[in-house]
Fold this protein.
Amino acid sequence: MGEGGGFQLGTVGALSLSVVSSVSIVICNKALMSSLGFIFATTLTSWHLLVTFCSLHVALLMKLFEHKPFDRKAVLGFGVLNGISIGLLNLSLGFNSVGFYQMTKLAIIPCTVFLETVFLVKKFSRSIQLSLTILLLGVGIATVTDLQLNLLGSVLSLLAVVTTCIAQIMTNTIQKKFKVSSTQLLYQSAPYQALTLFISGPFLDGLLTNQNVFAFNYTPQVIIFIVLSCLISVSVNFSTFLVIGKTSPVTYQVLGHLKTCLVLAFGYVLLHDPFSWRNIFGILVAIVGMVVYSYFCTIEGQQKAREASSHVLQMSQVKDDESDPLIRAETGAGINDDGAAQTAQAWSSNKDLHA
């Protein structure tokens, strides 16, 4: 009971940290890009990852977590793939309309479900599928406005969806396979992600904005917001790995759509962004889908826990049943025949040695 409660508490904490940090960094980056004109998203992300690595290195020196090296090829492939997926998502946004980009983000959930079903033989119940459909419908109503298609943008979106799904599935799989924590995985993969984006970032940003990130006028106000964005990103990156490790890639995507709805609502209430009843209705439908998804996940998790507990109990009973005849034989032998008792004790001792 205590272990299950601790796991649930840790999961709730991870989800809460992810929501708060993600909404905070969106607000900070919106001020940085919209108000101050710093629109170099990919380069900024590389700085985020570099600061995250430096922060984790300081935490390691302070012995706040233990460094656990594992398969270097897996870390390298994972880090580079994560960096590529971020770059492709930024390119998708640059070469597509906002509406089509939102459709790209919506496609990540069904793609993840498909990949996990085919390659990891993971089963999703009809209840989970229904709740995900409701969620995606709500987010689609709230965020998708226009669907202007073009060949290059569509190819970039497809690549962005596939690489993002694989990267998030790898996050969950690597943590379980090598038994590393989210902090340990992030610490080892962050340099490769940062290097990938640091090399490609200025080129991608120049391609999308027709501006040079190194020629930008870095005023004190811009520098303050960049530093603030990088500091918040430490929490964002850590919570991302934490949520995927404790739950699943699909749950992380569900949480991401909740954050999208929260950002929309925040922009309407505090920043007076344009809003309509369509947005409100879509957000409400998405929240219903998220609640239903959380409910069915909890129910199925409890059911699996009961089945696992029942299986352990059955195994324990089988072992007890197997030992009962031996106990009776030893007892009877002790009463009737000392030689037979010694034989039974020797057999019992030999069984224990081979167990």
The chain has twelve helices and no strands.
